[in-house]
Amino acid sequence: MVDRGLLYREWKQNQVVILLSIVFLVLANPLSIVNTYLSYQGCLDHQYTQYCNFIVNYKSNLMDINWMPGVILAVCLLGMERSKGTMDFILSLPYNRSQIFQTKFWLGGFVIVVSQLIGFLFAWLLILVYNPEHVYFFEHSSVGVIVISFMAYSLVMAAGALTGNAFAQLLTALSAGILPYLILALPLTNLEIVFDFHIYEIFSSMESYYGLENALMYLFPLVYVSNDWLTNSKYILFIPAAMSILFYLIGYISFKKHPSERNGYFFLWKRLDRPVQILVIIFGILGFGLFGYSAGHSIIGYIFGMIIGAVVGFFVSYFSIFKKTKV
């Protein structure tokens, strides 16, 4: 599983990033409460104190960007190793691929989860000390942010196991974050333009349409960057938890099976190059077609946008996927 020798190597290699991530994740939750308390004290210093309320509301706090350290850690643990060419050295050590990936993955996972649990404890103690009038979404938000930040970390780690450089890792993770939209919503919106209809007309009522739309929205990993999930069902968090497991399995299998000699290329598995290029061109055609249509609400603009999208999609995919970066 996790090897102590590899663990020490990863710690020495990424010590600064790990320590900064720990500090940020431990302090983000408590600082959100301290910030609210200082704002309340500042309000009391003014004349109209009857309007001052000490309320801790986790729908708006400093924890909205807790997913960022996980992304940075994943890039440092895999993407930067590929870009700098040091991954070849690690693979030459007397460890199998499974040990290398497990050590890297669970080191970052431990930092993300344990640091935020410590921050949760500090925040709970501050709430006992400050004794605010009301506290909204404390447990739900604290647990949810841990789950979502771990999901983001797992997603970027999976992307790093598939790709040959840091740029490709981030771009693949971002694309996967909006992939449900690209597969479902983008083609449907284009069909609405071509056949002149609205998708909600298929449903018996607007309520059922918006209900399905809201349900499908939470299949997008990128949606969880916003904190709108706080006001909906607490069971929504099972979705990013399941995504985390899925991304972990994808990363683990990819790291074990894919070659390492394609460092610098976009994908380590050469067979992915052509299918992904075709998808990029298709998404470019559909996306630019929508943009062209929205500019003038005309079919001519729609067709012109599709032509531009095809050209842009081809060149972007060609130079990013088939051209090797220096390592």
Automatic annotation (TrEMBL):
Positions of transmembrane segments: 16-38, 67-84, 105-130, 142-163, 170-188, 235-255, 276-293, 299-321
Keywords: Membrane, Transmembrane, Transmembrane helix
Cleavable signal peptide: none
Keyword Transmembrane: yes
The keyword Transmembrane helix belongs to this UniProt entry's keyword annotation: yes
Superkingdom of the source species: Bacteria
Protein's name in the database: ABC transporter permease YtrC
Origin organism lineage: Bacteria, Bacillati, Bacillota, Bacilli, Bacillales
This protein's encoding gene: ytrC
